[in-house]
Task: inverse folding
């Protein structure tokens, strides 16, 4: 009889990093279940995690490296693939300079900080290119920077202990089911719940208040709430007086944003704005859970996040139970060598906050500028790209333009678990290992939970010739003569090097702490012990001198969406409906997992959500195929006529190759500070397919 073996590891089918017990027989996974003692999931797995076996053993997986010859794919060995890539990268550097290489990674790779991203960043530093991009070009980077600009640290909402929770453009039942359970537990204990979303998501139906905001106007709504809080003296005067700068200027700034004025902008009734502001401000231990990118992908994305940060501050909900918290970090060895990069990234001057704050390096490029750079060669040519764990042709805006832009490259390598639209364009495709096929550190503080908990993701099996994303950079470094900067034999040695200052080791994590370890704690009021916040003033910077010096509005300012009935009335004549996109679905992750049968059953096809009033206006019935068109192009998909969306708005899911909504969107930066595109509020027309 075969022996059953148990390996404790962490799921990576989203960023939550849930603990997973994996049972193997004869080296094959036969069962997966949640680890009961793991704080992220407490023994549960969501449908994605539960579908792990189908995902890992999918017949669609890439099994070996391939090279394109005369438009046809040919199997090659890893040695040939790595030698070819190494030689090409050295040639590009010699002919065009190091900056002619750009690397772009997707969300799953992004969260494999150690060793994955850290090895990648070190490789790029040694090579000498500043052109590193990730999915953050259109995700939650603006929020992280805005919070740091305001508090000096990135802080995270702590709903478990909250007495009032605002879910702002966030639908954790679809995007983050473990967090949804945390919220449900808080509500059971009596927490009040406010949902702000143009869609009546399931959670909104049970909320104390639902504010159905016009897409793209959240910043105005936040300013309206601040108006109520300031004018009715609902702020925490003690905290504001002792620990903030610029409150007086804020008070003046929000005066015009009366609930009545804000109702005209946001379509949220004035009285509902008042009720939401009062409920939030008068409940100590309140937290705003901002969706992953619901506010970010708007013309006021960065300033919306600043407004949210200020709401938390003026109500005294910083470093208190149930408010925003900053857990203690783990001490790890730094991996970057930024001093080796001598050139500027392609948009460094346009988006300075993406690169550094107060001398603290970030070094993340804004990928939306890649389109025109690839097409025009300005400010300088990018000749080669490596894309890891990402399918930008489906998940990034303006797919047609991006296809043309990627076509200009001399050399494209894509590393992916499955063949994808982007991988089809590549010169070389590398088979990526899933989370069952690599060793990584999983720190759920940096995931969505804000809990200082560290676990080692274990290598459970080897699938065909699939390789770990981190190994690519180690192997290329060896072949390109960078050995002195990469003295490690394998990624395990890298993990030990990284862990050294923490006093932990990979062996310990594997053998003594297989389910993980709580390495720190959440301490409240830490700013008092530290003598202030990590900002230049030592206080929460409501009015930001740094923003002013950079030429930005020092207080959060609302900007109307780039396309809207107000900003572009002429365009509205032809495209009268607001298009919003990017809402999450439980059965997939952006462009991934639609080929997994169990998950496809949950979401069989893309559906455009449209309100009955809007549907009637355009003669559309539930289930009929409709055509949605913007200035950029058109797609066809079925309509789902539902009361659960604001009239005048159509919600189209992303990531579907059969109805790619990104044919309709565009990459033009809507938010001048972060450069993010405005995927949450564009204009379109809808009509029944003849
Ligand atoms: Fe995996 Fe995310 Fe589901 Fe947890 S919530 S089981 S990490 S997909």
Result:
């Amino acid at each position: 009889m075969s022996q059953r073996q148990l390996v404790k590891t962490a799921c990576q089918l989203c960023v939550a990093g849930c603990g997973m017990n994996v049972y193997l027989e004869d080296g094959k996974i036969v069962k997966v279940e949640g680890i009961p003692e793991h704080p992220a999931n407490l023994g549960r797995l969501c449908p994605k995690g539960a579908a792990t076996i189908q995902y890992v053993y999918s017949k669609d997986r890439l099994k070996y490296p391939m090279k394109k010859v005369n438009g046809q794919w040919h199997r090659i060995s890893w040695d040939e693939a790595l030698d070819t890539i190494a030689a090409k990268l050295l040639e590009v550097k010699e002919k065009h300079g190091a900056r002619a290489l750009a690397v772009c990674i997707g969300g799953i790779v992004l969260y494999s900080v150690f060793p994955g991203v850290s090895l990648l960043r070190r490789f790029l530093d040694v090579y000498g290119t500043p052109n590193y991009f990730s999915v953050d070009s259109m995700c939650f980077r603006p929020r992280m920077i805005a919070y740091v600009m305001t508090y000096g640290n990135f802080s995270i909402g702590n709903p478990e202990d909250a007495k009032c929770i605002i879910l702002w453009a966030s639908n954790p039942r679809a995007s983050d089911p473990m967090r949804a359970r945390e919220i449900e537990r808080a509500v059971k204990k009596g927490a009040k719940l406010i949902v702000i979303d143009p869609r009546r998501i399931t959670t909104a139906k049970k909320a104390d208040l639902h504010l159905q905001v016009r897409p793209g106007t959240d910043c105005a709504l936040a300013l309206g709430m601040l108006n109520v809080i300031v004018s009715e003296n609902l702020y925490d005067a003690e905290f504001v007086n002792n620990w903030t700068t610029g409150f007086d200027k804020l008070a003046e700034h929000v005066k015009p944003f009366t609930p009545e004025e804000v109702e005209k902008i946001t379509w949220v009734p004035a009285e509902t704005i008042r009720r939401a502001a009062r409920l939030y401000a008068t409940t100590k231990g309140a937290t705003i859970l901002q969706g992953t990118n619901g506010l970010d992908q708007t013309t006021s994305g960065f300033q919306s996040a600043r407004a949210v940060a200020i709401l938390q501050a003026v109500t005294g909900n910083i470093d208190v139970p149930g408010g925003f918290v900053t857990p203690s970090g783990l001490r790890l060895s730094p991996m970057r060598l930024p001093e080796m990069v001598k050139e500027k990234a392609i948009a460094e001057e346009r988006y300075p906050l993406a690169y550094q704050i107060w001398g603290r390096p970030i070094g993340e490029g804004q990928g939306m500028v890649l389109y025109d750079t690839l097409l025009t060669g300005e400010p300088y040519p990018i000749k080669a790209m490596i894309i890891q764990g990402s399918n930008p042709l489906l998940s990034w805006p303006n797919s047609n333009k991006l296809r043309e832009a990627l076509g200009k490259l001399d050399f494209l390598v894509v590393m992916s678990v499955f063949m994808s639209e982007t991988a089809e364009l590549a010169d070389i495709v590398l088979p990526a290992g899933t989370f069952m096929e690599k060793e990584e550190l999983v720190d759920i503080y940096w995931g969505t939970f804000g809990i200082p908990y560290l676990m080692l993701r274990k290598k459970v099996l080897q699938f065909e010739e699939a390789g770990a994303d981190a190994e690519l950079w180690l192997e290329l470094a060896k072949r390109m003569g960078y050995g002195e900067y990469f003295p490690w034999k394998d990624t395990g040695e890298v993990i030990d090097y990284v862990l050294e200052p923490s006093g932990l080791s990979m062996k310990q994590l594997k053998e003594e702490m297989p389910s993980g370890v709580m390495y720190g704690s959440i301490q409240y009021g830490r700013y008092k012990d530290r003598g202030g916040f990590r900002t230049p003033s030592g206080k929460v910077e409501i009015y930001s001198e740094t923003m002013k010096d950079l030429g930005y509005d020092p207080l959060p300012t609302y900007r109307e969406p780039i396309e809207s009935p107000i900003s572009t009335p002429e365009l509205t004549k032809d495209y009268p409906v607001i298009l919003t996109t990017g809402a999450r679905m439980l059965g997939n992750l952006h462009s991934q997992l639609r080929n997994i049968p169990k998950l496809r059953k949950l979401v069989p096809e893309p559906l455009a959500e449209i309100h009955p009033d809007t549907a009637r206006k355009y003669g559309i019935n539930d289930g009929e195929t409709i055509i949605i068109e913007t200035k950029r192009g058109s797609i066809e998909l079925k309509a789902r006529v539902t009361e659960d969306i604001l009239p005048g708005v159509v919600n189209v899911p992303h990531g579907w190759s059969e109805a790619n909504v990104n044919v309709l969107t565009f990459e033009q930066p809507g938010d001048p500070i972060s450069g993010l595109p405005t995927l949450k509020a564009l204009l379109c027309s809808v009509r029944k397919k003849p």
